[in-house]
Design brief:
The chain is α+β, with helices and mostly antiparallel strands. About 65% of the residues lie in helices and about 15% in strands. It is elongated.
């Protein structure tokens, strides 16, 4: 029995430990984007905004549908009101009054009322406004998805860049340590200057500092990537694509021949939604001058008693019912409705002007994104050539230094130039990816839609 209990405790402990282990993920870039569009914190709340807008649309619709309400009332006149009547009504002396109490001490009633809106101009406008607001919310969700996509691409590339830098700094460090070891041995044998050793030590310290910083940067970049995806920081994430693969796919200058369709841009859609809302607000103010028509029917029952006998089977209840129609006609508001209508007209003009400004800004963003993308592609190609040249220069100086032709200072200059070219090359790759993504966002090429 004790053995079985021990095994059970161990099994439970292993199950709990297994359940607490962090998950491990591996993503291509497209897989990461799809995951983030579903799990990113902002994306989740954006979908909730759409759900709220749908409920709000139904709330507006329901105000024009039949409304049924019930009212239950119980009243106990602890001290009943006294009325005075001429005494001669009950055989008293003329000119005097007799106090009397009318009704029973306790009253119970129940009423059910059914109301129906027949005509209200503001209700019709409200239906249109609810639909426009839902369109706006869906467009806002599309903008959120575009921003999430852009953020995931940037963070994915940043992790790859940090990994490349850590790898290249580690390789440079190993080469420098080897050079330093060999140069120190040559110096100990009296065949090299002490400055040669010191120059290499300085370079090694610089590379070590850059390596340490790159390791920290990689950790931060990976955490930012996790946040962009909407997963816990304690979980493990690995990337299955390389920076070179992503860059090769994004170096495509023919993409710059794409035409700009302003109406596809998400900022235009949102600005257009604003003009629709302002026009509906104008229609709403105008509709306030129209009459409203409502109909209702109710059914009521009431019982009276001096004691609480309303639950007894022999209690008498008296029924009543009313059918009615009411019309409210606005006639004069001292200019208030006119002032509100004029304000709404001004708001429409402002929205139209803002839409025109948005169109111009989109065109400017498109031209700027195209120019920046072309620059990053050209810069990437130049950085690739510069890296190749810097590697050859460093190799030549390495050979010259070994043969005693070049000084340690010249070697350090060549090495520093190489390290700078390496960093510029990898950074130019990320710049190409981000610039292409920015251009795609302006064009709304992904055409992301909420499922």
């Amino acid at each position: 029995m004790r053995k079985n209990l021990t095994l059970l405790v161990l099994f439970i402990g292993m199950a709990v430990s297994y359940g607490q282990n962090p998950k491990t993920y591996e993503f291509t870039l497209e897989e990461a984007i799809s995951f983030a569009l579903d799990s990113n914190y902002t994306a989740i709340n954006s979908r909730r905004d759409i759900a709220k807008a749908i409920k709000q649309k139904w709330e507006t619709t329901a105000t024009g549908l039949p409304q049924l309400r019930a009212n239950l009332n119980y009243q106990n006149n602890l001290k009943q009101p006294v009325n005075l009547i001429p005494a001669e009504f009950v055989g008293g002396e003329p000119g005097t009054f007799t106090p009397v109490v009318f009704g029973t001490q306790q009253i119970a009633s129940a009423t059910a009322t059914l109301e129906q809106l027949i005509f209200d101009g503001s209700y019709l406008v409200g239906l249109q406004a609810a639909k426009t607001f839902l369109d706006y919310t869906e467009n806002a969700d599309e903008k959120v998805q575009l921003e999430i996509r852009k953020g995931v691409i940037n963070s994915y590339g940043s992790v790859l860049l940090a990994e490349e830098l850590v790898s290249i700094f580690q390789k440079n460090k190993e080469n420098l340590e080897k050079n330093l070891f060999e140069t120190r041995k040559i110096f100990e044998n009296g065949l090299a200057e002490e400055e040669d050793v010191e120059q290499l030590e300085i370079t090694l310290l610089d590379v070590q500092t850059q390596l340490n910083n790159a390791v920290r940067t990689e950790d931060i970049a990976r955490q930012m990537f996790k946040v962009a995806l909407g997963i816990e920081l304690a979980e493990t994430v690995s990337l299955s694509e390389s920076l070179d693969d992503l860059t090769s796919r994004n170096v495509n200058l023919t993409f710059m021949d794409s035409d700009l369709n302003v109406e596809n841009n998400i900022d235009y859609k949102i600005a257009f939604n604003l003009t629709e809302q302002r026009n509906l607000e104008l229609k709403l103010e105008k509709s306030r001058a129209l009459p409203t028509l409502n109909a209702f029917v109710n059914y009521a029952t009431q019982a009276n008693s001096d004691e609480f006998t309303f639950l007894d089977g022999d209690q008498r209840w008296f029924q009543s019912s009313i059918l009615g129609v009411s019309m409210n006609i606005p006639i004069f508001s001292s200019g208030m409705r006119g002032a509100r209508t004029q304000q709404a007209k001004i708001a429409v003009k402002q929205a139209e002007t803002q839409l025109q400004e948005t169109v111009q800004n989109i065109r400017l963003q498109f031209d700027s994104a195209k120019s920046n993308y072309q620059f990053t592609v050209e810069n990437y190609q130049n950085s690739k050539k510069n890296l190749s040249l810097a590697e050859r220069i460093e190799n030549k100086n390495q050979v010259k230094f070994t043969e005693g032709i070049a000084t340690s200072f010249e070697l350090r200059q060549a090495q520093t130039q190489l390290y700078t070219a390496q960093q510029q090359y990898f950074q130019s790759m990320l710049d190409v990816i981000n610039a292409k993504t920015e251009l795609e966002t302006v064009l709304n090429t992904p055409q992301l839609k909420n499922p």
